[in-house]
């Protein structure tokens, strides 16, 4: 069976009409790949369209302010992607005269560009035969060839990378890479794929051995940690609040939030009012505090679940760092804060 030919033929008949498939410009392909990292197409597509409209070239993105980029990115998560994307745009514009590297090896020098993204850009834009290996590719290859080596193990990463490279179409690597990923997304789906109409079903090892549900194999994730987040939503008599920029190297670096008290256990009202974060912003003893949500809002990250409460504190006067309530919506925020702002009436 001609695996590569069948996949490519299927793609020409079934591929989705997506804007980044109508161009081979490195900027557009790079932008789409960064946005779609750990993001489904249906979620990432609107963001791609907004970014292309706002920043049609790498120059426009390079000259933008980081806060502007983060604000447009809001809701996609993994904000380091946006920060790295902005840094790369500035590097390409300022150091490379606005021209993206022209091969796989050079593309790997760009911040935020790993083997998968470099392979995608190199194959689609420059016809370099470098195989992409993502979740869809792992699934198709493990099922078709009956490979039960864990895809997130050292051995598995090496095995699937070598196999993917051996199957690539050297004449049209970009089309083949997109075809294999699209086949995994639409035909060889994670749950309940329709194997009866699959063009590979006559030679699929997983189908033959009744292992479609078992493959691919993935090692268990690390234990999820639970953290308790308490955001202090101060509201002064002159309609001001406190909104802070996160520093450090965390996932929400340079995004804005209300003052935060983080703990390993649930805090009550007394714990909150005695905390130094609370005392830093309340200038006198005249305040009223109430819990906005009795039931914690659970925000799931890769290795942590954040059990979140928002405390509303009304007071006469705040510290000098206060900002007007009307200005808060202008700042880039984590989705957790954005969702709260959508539900809480600031007016």
UniProtKB/TrEMBL annotation:
Function of the molecule: Adenine glycosylase active on G-A mispairs. MutY also corrects error-prone DNA synthesis past GO lesions which are due to the oxidatively damaged form of guanine: 7,8-dihydro-8-oxoguanine (8-oxo-dGTP).
Domain of life of the organism encoding this protein: Bacteria
GO MF term list: 4 iron, 4 sulfur cluster binding; 8-oxo-7,8-dihydroguanine DNA N-glycosylase activity; adenine/guanine mispair binding; metal ion binding; oxidized purine DNA binding; purine-specific mismatch base pair DNA N-glycosylase activity
Name of protein: Adenine DNA glycosylase
InterPro entries, per the entry: A/G_AdeGlyc_MutY, DNA_glycosylase, HhH-GPD_domain, HhH_base_excis_C, HhH_motif, MIG/MutY, MutY_C, NUDIX_hydrolase-like_dom_sf
Record has Nucleotide-binding as a keyword: no
GO biological process, one term: base-excision repair
Enzyme class per UniProt: hydrolase
SMART domains recorded: ENDO3c
Encoding gene per record: mutY
Positions of the HhH-GPD domain: 35-186
Signal peptide residue numbers: none
Organism the protein comes from: Paucihalobacter ruber
Keyword Methyltransferase on entry: no
EC number: 3.2.2.31
Family that this chain belongs to: Belongs to the Nth/MutY family.
PANTHER family: ADENINE DNA GLYCOSYLASE
Keywords: 4Fe-4S, DNA damage, DNA repair, Glycosidase, Hydrolase, Iron, Iron-sulfur, Metal-binding
Reactions the enzyme catalyzes: Hydrolyzes free adenine bases from 7,8-dihydro-8-oxoguanine:adenine mismatched double-stranded DNA, leaving an apurinic site
Cofactor needs: [4Fe-4S] cluster
